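Anyone able to model this chain together with adenosine-5'-diphosphate?
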Amino acid sequence: MKSVRIGFVGAEEPNLTEAMEFDLGYFQPVMESLQEGMEVTDNRGNVVYVNQAFTRFTGINPNDWIGKNVFEAAPHTPLVQVLVSQQPVFSTRAEVRGLEVMASAVPLFVNGHMVGGVMTWQPLTQVARLQEELGQSHTLIENLYARLQQVAGAKFTFDSIIGTSKATRTAVETARKAAKADNPVLISGESGTGKELYAHAIHQASRRREKPFIKLNCNGIPESLMEDEVFGHEKGAYPGAIRTHIGRLELANGGSLFLDEVANLNLFIQDKLLRVLEHWEFFRVGGSQPIRADVRIIASSNRDLRAMVRDGKFREELFYRLNNQELGVPPLRQRREDIPLFVNYLMTRFNRKLGKSIKGVSPQALQILMGYDWPGNVRELEHVVERAMLSANEPQLTHKHLAEYLSHVSGGLMQAYDIMPMKRMEEILLRAALARYGDNLEGKKKAAQILNISLATLYNKLKKYDI
Ligand SMILES: Nc1ncnc2c1ncn2[C@@H]1O[C@H](COP(=O)(O)OP(=O)(O)O)[C@@H](O)[C@H]1O
Ligand SMILES: [Mg+2]
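re: yes, here you go
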């Protein structure tokens, strides 16, 4: 199967092209079998793909059309309209190479960036003749669009992982090893530490890299739909199941299935997944034909699965299968040395995004950033740096720009507080003291002294606030 990659092209964030590219190749068999003509462009309107029906209807050889720019070669189609408006257009009359057609077009988004557009169409005469089937094939096309969006995940590699601290190097090394084996991997770590990034990198470094990487957000799909989403269903499996639905497990065939926040799967689905991991086959809901599952499972969790096993909330057997290779991604506060690198990288990225040219960060600001505990980890750091840069009109980021978001982390910045619950104030003081004096034993002694409490009380409070 030929690989057709489509990626974001733009002056705004040229370095992200790679990260926002996805491979249409997985869908090629489906696209080729569509009776609609189909055309795909990148976000600049350069044609990257046309299917057989397109050629059949127009008589244009794909080689003569791919690479053309639709803004010049076919400026009056819904596709151009969509590339400009970034809004989908469904079932509209249009003209394609002199043919009167009924067309639909949608923009394709990856990570919030439009990477391209797709248009499908059918000659009007055919539409009339095939009216009944058209209704059905629209469902198919909408389904296909939905699927395209899902697969269109960013493709990060180990090179995208920033950090030179011991903790990061250990994690990357473990992940590289895990990537080579074909066994399940369980990535654990707090929210925002980069678990998803590692999942991508593992897939990209595995022998399955040319095959799909499919994500299942175990948190984001209602329980009642989960079984369908994972395993798919057969046409007629239940009233309303008017066509066969391919589940994520099947979409991931040959590649990797990323079970994000796997702790949220209910026990029923856990049992079904366990059976897949034992027999490497499964049934679509309502199906009687076993389907082979050649899939590498990568799971992530920010919850303590061992504790959940103890509480009967997670199947022990499934846990051990997933945990075959264990990868812990450390929280940011355990690798503070990475922070200056992150800040540098983020400044370059946000300068481009925000159209600013901020050159550096003051030593005091950096100290604040390195002293903070980052409960939201890298995600929070990204947020804070972007906010600070938004508010900065000077060439350098200083503590002033951080004040609004991180005022409580630095003693030097603790002035204007709103009224807040005493407990919250206590927590803020504790964090500030540790940020200032360090969270080793020496620092804690000093903090306790300044806060005028015993070391034992300090430890109790740190435990109470989970600091
Ligand atoms: N080591 C890293 N290098 C570069 N970016 C990172 C790193 N770790 C996390 N990020 C970024 O931080 C954000 C959160 O990461 P994500 O993988 O979604 O975290 P998680 O899945 O653990 O909640 C993403 O934007 C991600 O790209
Ligand atoms: Mg995540």
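The radius of gyration is 26 Å.
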